Amino acid sequence: VALIEDLPGHSLTKGQIGTVVEHLERNGEEALLVEFADDQGRTYAMLDLTPDHLIVLHRKIEAA
To answer: pLDDT per residue over 33-43, tens digit each?
Structure first.
């Protein structure tokens, strides 16, 4: 997934790519635990976000 807006309180910016590691429920609403890691695989942020903060990225091997 990628962020669709800046999250300055977490030092994250629009477009940063993360990985959904768990589906959660927060106050009766869907949330996703997203891990943000560097090129070496070191986690620099992990937080729960609602789907409206994210866009799903797709990796297709075959042409559409």
So the answer is: 999 999 999 99
